[in-house]
Amino acid sequence: MSTQESRPTIHIPGTTSHTIAPRGGRSSREGKLRYLKTGTGAPLVLLHTVRTQAEHFRFLIPMISDQYTVYALDLPGMGYSEIVPGASYDEPAMRAGVERLLTELDLHDVTLVGESMGAVLALTAAADLPERVRRVVAVNTYDFRAGIARSSLLARIVVGGVLTPGVGAVVAQQEPKPILRRILRGGLGDKSALRDDYVDELLQVGSRPGYPTVARAVYQNLPGLIAARSRYSEVKAPIHLVYGEKDWSRPSDREANKQLLPAADFTHVPGAGHFIALERPEVVADLLASVA
User: Fold this and answer.
1) What are phi and psi of 68, to 5 degrees?
2) Nearest partner of 150 among 199, 192, 183, 114, judged by Cα
3) With contact defined as beta carbons under 8 Å apart, do 77 and 84 qualify?
4) Are 41 and 65 within 8 A, CB to CB?
5) Which residues contact 53 (CB under 8 A, 6 or more apart)?
6) pLDDT tens-digit profile of 207-233?
């Protein structure tokens, strides 16, 4: 794995770190996947947001590990999962990483919990693997136009720069701490929930060789998350949609998903933004306790 030189600066008590080898050997465009594991009980898989990693769930994991065996995945190329030159980071490729975790570990009766991009992948992976998935908790699905660019003018400028042909690759390599902090705070109702040590960890990951290419590819492929909504109605498992009051999605976006998934339970979290796992992890923990 090319993660190799650096290790996480944040440790979640009780967790151990593991990897899954690519299925196609050394010639594969798949890379090793890193995940954290802890707890006892039925399997629960956590899928993180755009530009984050398994440690995004640092506060949620201890709240649920006495009821579930928790697997927190670093999505392909992100966190400390391997960066493979030329690999795809579109929705199907990211979803394939999720499905590798479920199939290679032979997990059944799985609760899939995703936030943002991870919420979309939880739903589409559940559509693909109905025999393995028991339930889906989709927190602030990132399946609407503009996405993070709705959070602030700064985010619009930075993401627009990353996506600009020619100079975008250069912009993607420039990530000063104050800029990253301000962009991430745009996803929070409680700005104090973004701790400095977490920003430092994200910056360390962002300095990995090849990571700017991954980040740019993920932003370029975000429209695929909108297209993935066409798969939602195929999910057989019970679905819980969770939205923060101050999420980037608009009421019309949320209503569209409620119409698409009329049987889904719906939870509204007052005051919360896009990153509920950071600022209101107890809301997700209480929901998971109620359905365990």
Assistant:
1) -135, 150
2) 183
3) yes
4) no
5) 74, 78, 79, 80, 201, 202, 205
6) 999 999 999 999 899 999 999 999 999
